Amino acid sequence: MPKKSAIDIIITANEASEVLGKKIAKEMGLEFTKVTKKYFADGEIHHSFPEKFAGKDIIIVGSSHSDASQQELIDLIDGCHFFRARTVNVVIPYLGYSTMEQSKPGSNEIPKGITRTRQIFRARPHFVAFIDLHSEAVLHAHGGDIHTKHIYTNDLIVDKIKELQIENFVLVSPDYGRSKWVSQLAGLLDAPHTAADKDRFAMDKTMVGQVASVVDGKIAIICDDMIRTGGSIIQTAERCRQAGAVDTILYATHLVLAGDSREKFKKHGITKVIGADTYPNCTTDELLEVYSVAPLVAKVLNRQLKIRA
Question: What are the residues whose beta carbons fall under 8 Å from the beta carbon of 189, sequence distance 6 or more?
Answer without folding.
Answer: 158, 161, 162, 171
